[in-house]
Structure of Rubisco LSMT substrate-binding domain-containing protein:
Amino acid sequence: MSSLTSSSPSAGGSPPPAADDPTSSLLTWLTASGCTSSVIFPSYLPHRTSLASSPIPSDAPILKVPFKCMICPPNCLRSPKDQLGITLKDMWVTGQLRGDTLLAFLISREVILGADSDFEPYIRFLREIEEPETIEVWEDEELEELKDEVIVKRSRLRLREQSGMHKRVLAQLSSHTPSLSLSPLTLDLHLWSWRILQSRAFGRRLPWTSLVPLADCLNHSNVCVRYKLEKDNEIVNPYEKYTHDPESGDFIMYPSKGNSYAEGEEVFNSYGRRSNSHLMLDYGFCLTDNEWESVTFVQRLYRPQEVTELYSKLKACLNRAGFNVVRNLKLNRTTFQKGLMFCRIVNLTEEEADELIKGGDGDGIEKCGTEKIECDVISKSNEVKALHAMLALLNTFDTSALEEDEKLLESEEVEGRLRAAIIYRTERMRIVKRAVDMCEEMLQRIERMESM
């Protein structure tokens, strides 16, 4: 690994940063602090990317960021001199503020400190780059383009939750230190800090949720990556002052499980197994062909006004198969058969239900006794009813615009939030259309068998 560099622009790419540009200032600060990296950032080819400056084999460091450059509670609150910092530290060590809530207010504090912040180059970089394009900042007409009422409701709920959190913490701060001026801690600043945290922070493998400069600039892909603090096993109590050997204890990121990068190849981080709705809410983008994307349908066994013996038997069969009478089917590449199994059970005749419950030698029914049942094909008539029921459920999701949207994505004129919205809804339509095609193909196969 070497010190940090940025590449020259390619034809059609963005111009390189000036010396006083926030990106250049950030890289200069990180280099002076001892950061080393095997990536060139930003590449301007033509978008902001991080390219491997040399081959990076699996388990070799991508980058090493000194601990002192990380925005996290022990760094921000080691020796605060301002009243806000002193108050936040006391609330941290006494457990009154923790986790993401604490970090959001620490980020806001660093913004308020301005030139007095130990992280000023990093904060200036974060403030002057584009704000995270999470859908919380989208206009109503832009949200409508997603064609998903659930994610829109979740976005609006998150705004209300953050407004409530902001009010609660301000009340805590005021109660703790009545003389503390709260006017700089505006709701707008808090929302910005929260979006920065949600879109850039590391936390799962660290003692504290942290912002890690440069590491947070890698784009996302579904690749294998791991990161750690060197000697983090020496940290006994994350609420105590962090002391470590300056030559170790720093943040290191590696490609793992065979993942590697050739020289000049874009280097990615992985934010985990994230559906597109999660990516849109927390990061402001979504992926084409996202293996973790799903579409949720509600499946249910309708309860008659007067409970019949058949209803009781169907409910028993569902329970034996591991289903509740109402369930969410998260349809993706692997859950189609589970959804179809539910449809088979709720369309059983009384005789078929009896046979399934006792685990007899019925047509296609496995012997199950008291074991959990696996409901494969039961009978031709049941399979037809189940497939039609599955189709009826799937057809509640409109896929009629799929072909038109796929053509729109081929156009370079469609960009920004509209492009993200079209990718989001197109991926959902593809999942449903794939399942519809499977149902129709299975029905056609049954028809061909009957005609033979």
